[in-house]
């Protein structure tokens, strides 16, 4: 485990002593122990992509017989349920349906369910990141340029090619963002501002979240001083969520969502005086990340 602690110490220096809120790893037991020892307050989640890869290995015989239905049921257990009781019920039905009561890998995964099932992670900030695929993607990109057959001089030469290609793509994207505006369905002030400061790709993501917020059914329930309580039901959903909104200064100072699927965008939809400070978590123009 000591070997795992050294990289964590180095990472902490780069983060200027601030520990990450959430970290995702594969199921490396030594890394898990090191994180629990060094960063006990950091929320440790498991990479969903690696879980699916391991499922294909440990459940290969079942997948061969029930490939599509098992994958769908397992996926729903990871992503779909908003209440713990729903998740547990679906998990038990899946175990019974495919006769997996004696599968040791599934039993171990169930014991770690709070690290991968989204029903247990909705109240923890993770910026919608549920896999380590960004690092896996970079590994794949590097392998496209560099081979194990290359000597050290060739490695540096090909790595420079990679950097040049990435910079060219970023410059092309910067030019596109600087010379054009994304199409807006509605001429809302908040969308005008987002279109002016964010990339086309990030604007599209924000626009979609805002659309979902406006399509949600919102009912005012109660009011305590500057705080207002709403019931929010997303479009095509049956469950309602309780949102508490503090209107002091016309800003969302405190938002609580029972099942965290609405988030800050819901507060924008409930506030007629939404301002620029309420656009959060998006990248400014000229800062493009490729996948």
UniProtKB/TrEMBL annotation:
Cellular compartments annotated: Nucleus
Listed GO CC annotations: nucleus
Pfam families the UniProt entry points to: MULE
InterPro entries according to UniProt: FHY3/FAR1, MULE_transposase_dom
Gene Ontology terms: biological process: regulation of DNA-templated transcription
Main location (coarse class): nucleus
Alphabetical keyword list: Metal-binding, Nucleus, Zinc, Zinc-finger
Gene Ontology terms for molecular function: zinc ion binding
All residue ranges annotated as the MULE transposase domain in the record: 11-54
Family the UniProt entry places it in: Belongs to the FHY3/FAR1 family.
Function recorded in the entry: Putative transcription activator involved in regulating light control of development.
Protein name per its UniProtKB record: Protein FAR1-RELATED SEQUENCE
Species, as recorded: Salvia splendens (Scarlet sage)
